[in-house]
Amino acid sequence: MLAAVTSGTCEIALVERDDPAAPGPGEVIVVPEAVGICGSDYHFFLGELSDAAGGSQFPRVQGHEVGARIAAVGPGCDPELEVGRRVAIWPLVPCGSCYPCAVGRPSTCDNFRLIGIHDDGGLQQQLRVGQDQVFPIEVERAAVAALVEPLSIAVRAVNRSRLRAGERAVILGAGPIGQCILLAALERGAEVLMLDRQESRLELARELGAQTARFTGKDAAVAAARAFAGAAGPPVVFDATGAPAAVEAMLAMVASAGRGVQVGMSNAKVQVRIGLLTEKELDLLGVSCCERDEFAEAVALAERRVASLERLVSHQFPLARAPEALRFAIDNPTQVMKVVILVEQ
Ligand SMILES: [Zn+2]
Ligand SMILES: [Zn+2]
Questions:
Q1: Which one-letter DSSP state was computed for residue 31?
Q2: Nearest partner of 78 among 28, 148, 13, judged by Cα
Q3: Which residues surround ligand 1, an ion (CB under 5 A)?
Q4: Which ligand is the nearest neighbour of the Cα of 117?
């Protein structure tokens, strides 16, 4: 089979590899059809993945946003996992024994493994996964199945935020994760204001159902949030950028007794006046991956929001052009929403 192997910083090439052996008990071999490329893939490729995330471990087959078909099923698997079914892959393999796992929070497992980061992922013609990672999905395009993974992060973010119907939420950052949070928030019956520097991204957010405002700095963002949600500020704010200016705006605009949810990843630092946390009694919540139930929730949401998710796919490349696809996405951040690599068989 063919695999796109990232062998070092900015080095990726297609290589011929042996097919995986027949699946063992509880294992499934899937044939990846579509693989989404996201920010963490760029960081991995550029050798910038943080030590806390395990660093960039080469060589690696990247790709953790995977839409696939079941090719072979090992003994003892759920009978629902039939050969030929289209599936989305939950990329997380938690250890099951650390403190977060013990308290039912595997998405922040101390020893977690993610396919495409710590183990080989979807940019290859066959992939072996555990049956717990395989979720059947009824959608026409494999690219939509690949988008379940970013959508699952959004589902987790909205779950952690305790967003309720009728509440007004602000999302900072209209990239793929911000747009997915928008879809998950709309599903809850919330009203959403999306902020971003880039007009084309805001245009997409409007088409998906958000009100929008240009992000031109913290003070203007706070004013826009108050105009939208009232003088007390929005009760729920998501940062999907990881940019210090946006995180500062989130902390400044969120209402007292509100919830601020950090989804964008970054090694940058922000200065926080400590009194702000006590005076507002803020719930400041972080989001990493998602729980298994939330991945199932994201599958159901994707099935209901197919047309919206298809809008997020801005570029598609075949597997043979995976190296070009990664470089294109890194070099053209303002043009690219979501690059999807189609793994032709
Ligand atoms: Zn991702
Ligand atoms: Zn664990």
A1: E
A2: 28
A3: 38
A4: 1
